[in-house]
Amino acid sequence: MELTNENVLGKIIEQFGEENITDAVNPDGIMTFQTNRQTIHELIKYLRDDKELQISFLTTMCGIHYPEQKDKELCMMYQLHSLRHNYRLRIKVYFPISDPVMPTMTDLYATANWMEREAYDFFGIVFAGHPNLIRILNVEDMEYHPMLKQYPLEDQTREDKVNTFFGR
Amino acid sequence: MATETKKVELDGLDQFRENLDLKLQDKHNENLTTLNLGPTHPATHGIFQNILQMNGEVIVDAVPTIGYIHRAFEKIAERRPFYQITPLTDRMNYCSSPINNMGYHMSVEKLLGIEIPKRAQYIRVIMMELARISDHLICNSILGVDSGAFTGFLYVMQERENIYDIYEEVCGARLTTNMGRIGGMERDLSPKALYLIGEFLKRFPKVWAEFEKMLTRNRIFIDRTTDVGAISAERALSYGFTGPNLRATGVDYDVRVMNPYSSYDDFEFEIPVGSKGDTYDRFLVRNAEVWESLKIIEQAYKNLPEGSYHADAPHYYLPPKQEVYRNMEALIYHFKIVMGEIDAPVGEVYHSVEGGNGELGFYIISDGGRTPYRLHFRRPCFIYYQAYTEMIKGGQLADAILTLSSLNVIAGELDA
């Protein structure tokens, strides 16, 4: 079976219902849609195990922070790849920063382990069920999650680096 | 005066130690020794720390710690205009920086929707394949060093110097190249660069054949590397392996063939695969890939198309300097680009290239500003290094060193 955006989306919606699979777009040739925290684990398991789809390679995942979106401040992006069909797929889950809990994918993909630790380290996303959720690249006693947008790159209290001409 | 010692409270550190204790099995078993390998150890070729639990010489468990040269590239990139991010990328896999540079450029070009002329694509292919050769050359010759054969390393290092001479002629730098620009190459290949590439193509096959002759059928080397650090194809896929390490297990996934970029579909080459996924297979796959890269360079060198070496994209590609002095329009574009005042369109892009170690991906989210809203690097080293524990368990300490070398984990890419 040739995988196209239409028939993959059709199959997923048939399985999980229209209320759980929303906002399908195609920004760069890779179909991107949103789902919710209740569905994501089942969905990735289904994509991996389905005999027709075989979307069974977790290419990457990363957190994204949108401070302006109320109750959708954090986003987790999963990008999957079917090596059999050479078909890529991107899934996003938005959730509030006050409750940054996501289900872990470590039981489905071994590679999710460090990727989730990275997302925890930089965005403070907690993965329920992760076997060893500690910081990975930053020091252990760091008290904040540095990729969140409220932390500017440079120390804003410094006065020796003011550049009034170009604003940076 | 007596000095007072203060007890420093480090909650995070205690937490870390607790986790470590949980991870290390049988910590009360007196037969086991805890050995700290790294972070700065001459045999690890980079800053890797592994706390090993040893039973005699056999590794029972290992806990890797990474992040020693973490430089927060993803965070820095959120404050920089697109063209200023290129120098960050070549500090990731510094053994093959041009691949990183050009992979990043191609991702931004995909976001901007720029078409690149054939000549620029071919020049990119030549430079990327040279980078792949220098990457594999380092990995395989260091594998020789770690198993006791220093000669090959010194011998092929001269060829890496020659590759760096080509880089120098093309872009002015040798290690952290910052090669090319968004929209093509910074300048055309000079006659000297073409001459150097031609000379390299003539000389290198002999050198590489000799290097292969020294190790490939060497009894000691084979005994030393067969069945060392083996991983099955299923586990490798689950761990997200890509590149030579995945191909050594027998899976023929190569981004250059599956999702061709930069005219890779114009060239004839094969994907070498292994079968067992052990250190020896990884060595063979990399060796064979060097020959394939040579084939690609030869084809691109012979069929180098005429035409421009950069895209006609004045908003993003710097005008020639002479024009800037004479032409008002060029001056304005020059100023806007250099000051980073050119906005990128709103969009979301993932582009991946076959890096020295596997699928090197760039995921860019642009909100229409001068910098990316979010830039995520899919760094192959970071993804497959987590399998290291599983690969060295049950083996000996010296095998762990060989496994690390044959995986070609580059600290810069691991920690970004």
From TrEMBL, chain A:
Its main location: membrane. GO terms for cellular component: plasma membrane. Its EC number is 7.1.1.-. InterPro entries: NADH_DH_suC (IPR010218), NADH_quin_OxRdtase_su_C/D-like (IPR037232), NADH_UbQ_OxRdtase_30kDa_su (IPR001268). Residues 34-156 form the NADH:ubiquinone oxidoreductase 30kDa subunit domain. The keyword Signal does not apply. Signal peptide: none annotated. It catalyses: a quinone + NADH + 5 H(+)(in) = a quinol + NAD(+) + 4 H(+)(out). One of its GO terms (molecular function) is quinone binding. It comes from the Bacteria. SUPFAM superfamilies: Nqo5-like (SSF143243). Keywords: Cell membrane, Membrane, NAD, Quinone, Translocase, Transport. Belongs to the complex I 30 kDa subunit family. NDH-1 is composed of 14 different subunits. Subunits NuoB, C, D, E, F, and G constitute the peripheral sector of the complex. PANTHER family: NADH DEHYDROGENASE [UBIQUINONE] IRON-SULFUR PROTEIN 3, MITOCHONDRIAL, NADH DEHYDROGENASE UBIQUINONE IRON-SULFUR PROTEIN 3. This is NADH-quinone oxidoreductase subunit C.
UniProtKB/TrEMBL annotation, chain B:
GO terms for cellular component: plasma membrane. InterPro entries: NADH_Q_OxRdtase_suD, NADH_UbQ_OxRdtase_49kDa_CS, NDH1_su_D/H, NiFe-Hase_large. PROSITE patterns: COMPLEX1_49K. One of its GO terms (molecular function) is quinone binding. It is an enzyme of class 7 (translocase). This is NADH-quinone oxidoreductase subunit D. PANTHER family: NADH DEHYDROGENASE [UBIQUINONE] IRON-SULFUR PROTEIN 2, MITOCHONDRIAL, NADH-UBIQUINONE OXIDOREDUCTASE 49 KDA SUBUNIT. The keyword Oxidoreductase applies.
